[in-house]
Amino acid sequence: MRSIAFADFLIGLGILFVLEGLMFAASPNWMRKAMKSALATPDHVLRAVGIASAVVGLILIWVMRRPV
């Protein structure tokens, strides 16, 4: 039997794929430009944005999953 946490992880991963796929389908040129921009961005900026995004995501998960 799968755990609830693993099921939540798979649901989150599925949502990620759906959103990413929709962005590529809706505007492939914009996504291409965004990827070129990411290649030109310094590592420290990408790292800071990634860490900030992860922290915001964890806070959102914590707020939504905490008992009321």
TrEMBL record:
Top-rank taxon: Bacteria
What Pfam family does this protein match (any one)? DUF2065
Is the keyword Isomerase assigned to this protein?
A: no
Keywords, in A-Z order = Membrane, Transmembrane, Transmembrane helix
Q: Does the keyword Disulfide bond apply?
A: no
Q: For this UniProt entry, which segments traverse the membrane?
A: 6-25, 45-64
- This protein is called DUF2065 domain-containing protein
Q: Which organism is it from?
A: Bradyrhizobium neotropicale
